[in-house]
Amino acid sequence: MKISYECGACFLRQTREAMDLATDDDDLKMEIMNDVFKFLSQTFKKGTNSNKIGSYIHNLIKEKTGCYDPYINEKKLGNEIALKYLPTAQKILDDDDSLENRVKIAIVGNILDFGAFTLDDDIESFIKDSLQKDLTIKDIENFENSLNKHDEVLYLVDNTGEIVFDKLLLSKIKEYGINITIAVKSFPILNDACMEDAIAAGLDEYGEIVEIGAGTVGYVDSEISDEFREIFNRHEFIISKGMGNYEGLTEIDLSNKDIYFLLCAKCGTISRDIGVNLHDMLLLNK
After folding, report:
1. In the sheet that 137-138 helps form, which strands lie side by side, from edge to edge?
2. Amino acid 122: pLDDT
3. What is the pTM of this model?
4. Is residue 130 located within the same domain as residue 32?
5. Which residue from 56, 132, 209, 272 has the fewest beta carbons nearer than 10 Å?
């Protein structure tokens, strides 16, 4: 997906937040902010891919500060929030254990995204309210047909916290007799899930966990490893969680893929690209 004018302010907000988490050195923050300004002055142009810009900025901050995982505490907070609301999600399933509800709960987990929300946002309220909402786009019939049709699926996870809710959908997918491959980031970026996060959440119970070979914001095709490219190319059926993966995957040819995007539209750029309202939740077969 290409950037819009709104992305500029978002990149700068993320820069400030990541720096504040990574270091207390104000002089270093000034230096990094100047570097980001210079980078954006050269790259922030119509037609530029959003994932590549975001990935560069976050990796620059890690390199300059020496802080390998600035969002480590936020990732723990995300898991705590998810575990707090897991019984609420389970109660919904006790009342109506439908595939649609499993999908909706997995999408509600996508709200736990410190790249889209500020650290001061009341994320718990967003989750509680969203559990009561319906999906704006719900290609649920196509999704179930795909579950019945395919023998294997590649599941691209997004954030920590969110992966706790993913387990409820992964367990349902297992009932269809499908082999699941779960893809995580190789290196920390924002609050995205890495191997240790996925194992700690118990995702290895549902399938093989593999790394994409990169620490990028979402999926950046030019950065993935050769090993993961083979895995990606082999799978026809793909489930993609979150905005970052949507932004990156819609930049490449998916004509031979049966792909579903599960996300909450948390910014105006994404909302307009898909044609939905802000904070709408969707299961989109694209």
Report:
1. 137-138, 281-285, 258-264, 237-241, 152-156, 179-184, 208-211
2. 66
3. 0.93
4. no
5. 132
